[in-house]
Amino acid sequence: MSIASPFERLARASGPAAVESGIYDLFKRHLSVVAADTEALLDQVFRLRYQVYCVERGFENAAEHPDGRERDHDDGRSLHFLVLDRASGEAAGTVRLILPQIGSELPVIRLARNTGGMLPAHSTAEVSRFAVTKAFRRPLATSWCSARDRRSGLPIIAFGLIQAIVMMSAVGGITHIVAMMEPALLRLLRRMSIEFYPVGGLVEHHGLRQPGWAAMGHLCQRVKECHRELWEIATDAGRQLPALPGLAAT
Known about the structure:
By secondary structure, the chain is α+β, with helices and mostly antiparallel strands. It has one domain (about 20-245): 3-Layer(aba) Sandwich (Aminopeptidase). It has eleven helices and eight strands. Strands 1, 2, 3, 4, 5, 6, 7 and 8 form an eight-stranded mixed beta sheet that branches. Strand 7 (about 205) and strand 8 form a beta hairpin. The longest helix has 18 residues, at about 40-55. It is globular, with a radius of gyration of 18 Å.
């Protein structure tokens, strides 16, 4: 008998009853969000990034990473998280938060060049390397979420990566985040009540990208008001909020 892939096993575990029993509970039962704070976990991060950015998307040149691990010079100043499949331990997604550093601008700020000091330099960090592997990128949310969520096209794994961003922001004392995103992704996130505000116009960075920023407190509050299921996963049912700058516990 063949062994089901993680995608197949998770899909079988969902279905119409999943919405009734709670997407948050289902997420917690099958997936975990963990800090990549050991050499072994960091190795999973870099291997997953190589798979997504070099092999699947061709975003980075695979020849520049002959060991099968995608890294860059900003990794040393970053917090890294993984979303893991609980049953197999397989990494489904990863994201990093590049922390502010005296004397060194964030990559997005360097590219945008026109922030006008609008963001607090000491508590603004950059979200990057937001990656979900192909096996988990298929519409797993189809059987987990409401009709509104299915139309969004955002896989449930990505909700876990958003939780990681909230957790990293709390740990790092971050009040604002910036990111470089494709315009289509910005529109998709907006439909989920995840609002990034543009910083200048489009820039060329592996294709046209829009630099944008968000205030963590406002972002979490908006998601809570408009998309409760996402808020529960993103904040671990509110458990991250007491430590989150700019937002009172509720």
